[in-house]
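Hey, I'm writing a tutorial for new members on how sequence and structure tokens pair up, and I'd like a real worked example in the thread rather than a made-up one. If someone can provide the structure for the chain below, I'll link this post from the tutorial.
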Amino acid sequence: MMWRLWTCTLLFCALVLGLAVLASDAQGQVANNQCTKEQDKQTTSGLTGTLTFSDSCGTQTGQWEMIVNGAPATVSVTISGIMPGGTASALTTSTSTSNTVLQTAGGPYSTYSIAYTLTGGSSPSLTFNRLATTAKSINGFPSNPSFTGAGVNAACNVDGVVHKTINSCACYFKAKGWGGGLVNTNTPEVFSTNPFVCGGTYEALTINFGTGLPGTQCNTTNPLCWVTNVPLLIPAGGDMIGIGIVTVGVGDPSGGSEIGFGSTYPAIVGAPAPPTVTCFNNGNGTWNTGQTGYFKTFYVNNLDGSDGATTAAYTNPSSEVSLAACGTNSEFTVTYPAAAGTSPFQAQDVGVASATASGAEVVNVGNSSDMTCGTGGGGTAGTIDSNQCAIATPCTTPFNPLTAGCFTVKSPGATTDSSHAVLQVIDETNTFLTVGAKQLTSTFGQLLSRITMNGNNGVPANLTPAANEPNIGIWMRNCQEACYITGAGVGGPIGGYASTPGAYLLISEPDGGVQGFNPGPGPNAGQFFDLIVAPLTSQNLTITATQSSFNLRTAGPPNTSGSIWVTGAGTLFTAVGVHNEDFDGGDGYRCDGGAAMTIVGGECVSTSATKGCFHRYSTCRYMSVTGAMNDNAVVKPTVVDDARGITITQPVGLAPMNYESLTYVQKNVLATAQSGISTATTITGMVFGVEAGATYQLDCALKYGASAATAAFNINLTGPAAPTLLSWTLDGGTATNAFGTAGAATTYTALALPVDTGFASGNFPANVHLTLTNGTTAGSITVQAAASGTGTVSVAAGSECHLTPRGY
């Protein structure tokens, strides 16, 4: 049993579930036992005359491809609808001497006539390829264009009469107060705004697309498929379902459901120029003498354009600028780059990322949570600011933190951005199709199926990117649960910009194949779980859950149960990329009864003070956790191993957990540098569980620095009381000296490197090797850093420790 997310990123690949086409010249096309379209072809004879097309289906919209032959000097064409009594209604005219597509609406009629006159040229003629559709059974729905009968009161057909566009249906649902509904369309159109949006509000539409029209092109001039001049976004609960993919190299839109981009589609914003950075010392920052600040800036635009919502997209960053700190507790100002413009999809905001090491920048101020400025920027929350957040205003001299034009960066890597915490490697600002609209929250329940996003710019087999080519085909942006891509295609020369990579598919948040979520009142007694895995027989049961989400958030009394419970002799449960929450006082994962559990990646939240995200009961064969993230907002147990008597409590935040109950080698690597350390401070993640009476080997390879030559680096260890043995060696080195120390004791003692007056800053090694025989109390040992002397010390990213049991 497996839940899977299927995606497709090649030039053309798809999971095709079924496609049937019934067609012939000069007759109606049939589907679901109902006539749905007329398809016909006729060529003129002579310089003047009339062609007559029958209309057995009673069509209401028509596409007439006019092919001009023999280079006539003038052309005059009138298409009319003829009623049974002979009354004619002129529907459209043309005087074009080149190939074109004419559109008619307003049927049904008994017949259609085309009156034509040609002059000049060499044996001139006109060929008309007609594809006319009816509202009868669009994808199996009845003929009436919009209806409110029982059970179908949220359905709407794009029929070319009552509703001529998908957006018309969205506004129809909004007027009814339904918040969305089912839309069926066989009518290609050109999108100038997001079709899911009406009056600034997203509607949860399920759009069933039919096929495009016969031909070889699909662009603004010849919209034989659906064409968009704006980035498309699917909101929570929104679906886009086609009838099948289109082979981009062949380019006939009538072969399936296809969306192309138009002539006014926006180009990428592009990265800003490198910023200007200034250091000043007023005692409010955390940078110190000997440290260097590294900075990059980036633009932010709104993929919603002027639709009234905010979906922030980042450019890739500027090139890096560095500057040395100008004293103790100094900070930096970073000027805004020049504005890109005020039109929709141009840069509306700007952000800064910083770090103490080159290439390690983390977003400090993204300002994209409400698309407003930083301090003094004068922006309005929730809106795109007409002053572009004053991003062209220079800093004042001397610096005034209340004046727009500068960011003040007091500490490196302290993100305040609620959309992106890291810099992007790809420019997102003109993404073709984004699954997950709006800024702050994750979205749920979206489906993209059997649709082609065609980046060929309307030319079959085109390999040359357009100047406004979408840089990303499909972006799985922030859909948390119950999201799928199945049988979708992306084709053409997507990207092609020298300043940024391009991608057919960008996944920024794991997409959940199954969502389990309980927001209700919850059980008042007994136990409740999101998922129970238990065999019916004594045979081994193997279950894998992939990219799924299980959230236990009952509002009743805590039932101290858990989110996922795996039990039964021989049962093996594997979770890959699973999001797990228990807000009801229980375990995130519970393993007992002879079962075994393996967790790879994903994340876990548990609010229990005694249970854990990963709980191995005494009857669980084994539990293995690799790279899973502890996402607790407060300090709670991460691993509880009853069989070993171990409880491991990690620091708050997304800290990766690696635990193996058989050998349970525990290892952690410091992902982000820690600086400004004076008193004993736990090195992030360096907390390891130990059993009563067990023997371990602790090995640490640390890299450290200091703010001044008068600061010495110290290592402290804490752990359960009364260990039987502590025996260690410690060696280190600075710019000028190398030295070591060793000792043995029955109490935890501070281990200190002596002061070396010849250095400041730098990344120097400190290696710890500790043999520990624990006493009668199980618990955790903690590795801490501290400074002695004058100044502070730092621990560099990449420092690591691992604890290995002995005697097993």
